[in-house]
Design a protein that fits this description.
Length: 201
């Protein structure tokens, strides 16, 4: 099940591809890591019963959905603005590390503010738990970890592919600007889609 879901492009893939097109490979991989960590934080929430609150509360679902959508739009606007300015000169390793940490945190925020994931995990994960074996929380955490690792591998492939395409288009500064803008538009479009999508029930 996890393998199938990881192979199907979804919002996390669109987010990673948008980041790759807008910012390149380092940002894409940092976003993949952060998004997977954010997704696993939702697994922890489900394991300890928090997921049921969001799954059953239309208000909580809507608040998280709007927050996540707004953040995606914000990141998209930032990417478009960045595409209109020349890339910075190579800086110190410390600056690059700070940028990577920020991009990882941004990916985490996108991952943890996906209410659809909470509802999905709440509905699906318990079905694969053997309650007679005990340690229900541990089983959910282990199942969620397997899914997070598969997502990490799958999204990394998408991110590397998109960043390779960006590098090819980026031989021209004008094309690079267009590609970066396209990545920003992809994130804005994803944010609008998330905001417009309602609960499954």
């Amino acid at each position: 099940m996890s393998l199938l879901l990881s192979a199907i492009p979804g919002p996390s893939v669109l987010f990673v591809v948008g980041r790759a097109l807008a910012h390149g490979r380092r940002a894409a991989l940092a976003s993949v890591l952060g998004n997977a960590l954010g997704g696993y934080a939702l697994v922890v929430a489900v394991a300890f019963g928090v997921g049921n609150v969001v799954a059953r509360s239309a208000l909580a679902f809507s608040l998280i959905k709007i927050a996540g959508a707004a953040y995606l739009v914000f990141l998209g606007v930032q990417a478009i603005r960045g595409s209109r300015t020349p890339p910075p000169e190579p800086g110190a390793a410390r600056t690059a590390a700070r940028g990577t940490l920020r991009q990882t945190w941004e990916g985490f925020t996108v991952g943890v503010t996906n209410p659809k994931s909470i509802v999905f995990l709440t509905a699906v994960l318990p079905q694969f738990v053997d309650r007679d074996a005990g340690h229900v929380v541990g089983q959910i955490l282990l199942l969620g970890l397997a899914g997070a690792l598969l997502q990490l591998a799958s999204d990394s492939v998408w991110g590397l592919t998109a960043s390779a395409a960006r590098a090819w288009f980026g031989r021209s500064p004008r094309r690079m600007s267009l590609v970066g803008g396209a990545g920003g538009m992809a994130m804005i479009g994803l944010g609008v889609t998330v905001a417009a999508t309602g609960r499954a029930d």
